[in-house]
Amino acid sequence: MQVKRETTENFVIIQHNYGFKTLYGHLSKIKVKMGDFVEKGQLIGYSGNTGLINGPHLHYEVRYLQRPLNPVNFIKWKKIEYKKIFSKREACKMGIFNKRNNSKSSDSSRTTIISEGSFISGELRFKGSVHIDGEVEGSIMSENVVTVGKNGKVKGKISAEKIIINGYVEGNADCNSVEILSGGKFTGEITYNEITIEPKGVFEGTVKLKTGKIKSLKEAKEENEAVQ
Question: What residue ranges define each of the domains in the chain, with the CATH number in brackets?
Fold first, then answer.
């Protein structure tokens, strides 16, 4: 929680799970302090007229990953509203960090993280790598590596240099190499040059070499075992 008192305005910002924040502004009195944990229904302050306003009122904001959302959708919240609110968002970047820790590095050296609890629908394009712990429906195109984490779920098409699956993917994949780790599951068709399926990794569907030759799952596994 962030609490701020200024000569112009008093406001409180509450940090919620999964990248959400709510802001309560123009307060006359604040009843919480920085670092407090609050519960539903708890009093955090009183509405007022601090700041540049013409009369007492509450300024209320809902933000998701620093992006403002229409608070009306949250006043009478229903779980069914979740996809409706986020379906028009092309991408939600929970965090971008540079692998080399150098701000001058190219975009291809950066990784975009789609966090657990996030839902994204649409066409996503990335120059760097992507790590998915949330849910994505649509198409993902990356010039580097796409990793579907243990809690990640993708429905659609993935195109990348390399794909690593430790979660669940349903659809089509087009890549140079693909790894299905233990605990990972892929359902659909994979077009590839190299494939690795670890013990307990699950694949259901067909695989197709970049050369155009279609292989059965048994052939792909035999090829993988021969390489190992």
Answer: 2-77 (2.70.70.10), 95-227 (no CATH)
